[in-house]
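Following the same procedure, the fold was encoded as tokens, giving this record:
***
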Amino acid sequence: MLLRAENSKFARTINLYKAVLCIFAFSAYSAETVTLHNSDTEVTYKNLSSLSVSHQTKVKTWLNFGINANKRMLGLPRQAHYYFDLNPRYFATEPVPWARINRGVFDTVELHFYRYASLTSLKRDWTLYHELSHLYHPLFDYKDFWLAEGLATYLQNRVMLHNQLISRDEFIHRISAGLQRGKLNTKQNKGQLNSVSENMWQRNAYQRVYWTGVAFFIEAESQLKAQDKPDLVSLIKQYQMCCRENEQYASDQQAKQFLQSLDRLSRSGIFTSLYRRYQTREDFPVISKSQIASLITPFTPKSQLQ
């Protein structure tokens, strides 16, 4: 889940001002450097001291594991310094009942988790991988949240499969079941996708918004493969290096700019063409079983074999 940064002046601050602001904003945070596959990166925690020493160790191990899991597949996001706002709960029915990304001068992962959850249950929960996946794209306008949440939901399942947290059969089941929920929710939340996305909280249209976005990226993957192009994961990695820094702050054109960047990197028009078709659609996309199964079939474009 994403949270829009309230203060638009952040988009116009100079780098020195950003640095000073970060110092004050994170005065209650503790920072440490962790090793991520032979490269050091810094992780900053807020409210870590509210936990016992043993729980602090568990939470840091969990977060380090999640960062590494996403990095193994997607590489480091452009913002390589990770900020976590920790909100441990005494009572919860699941390991991580709620989380979101707070956008601003720096992007912060706000996590609400059960403080007594086991390390294993925290690692197997999908929420952390979902929120970390949001760090790989800029903030989109409300009408395009279907794209942001679809990408994060799609990537979270890819990351969990890649790190053997779920099996191939479970991956297919999760995607298929999610698409079915999206289809059912579309019947209850009629209207154009961009309008429903803009009001998904009031309309309780999460399933339609999230899973229509997943369908979008499954279709994109199918077309990339058909045209012998690099897959989405490869494009997301390249995007961090070429374009992410220039698309940090929100505007109503941010989603289009993001997709145009993916089109340039893939030397295609796949993403913007699909976006034009999806943004105002009123039905739920039809995704075949073969399209879902093809997501776990290894594929290397011929251009990368030469």
Q: What stands out?
A: Strands lie at 2-3, 29-36, 39-46, 82-89, 98-102, 108-114. The first helix runs from residue 15 to 25.
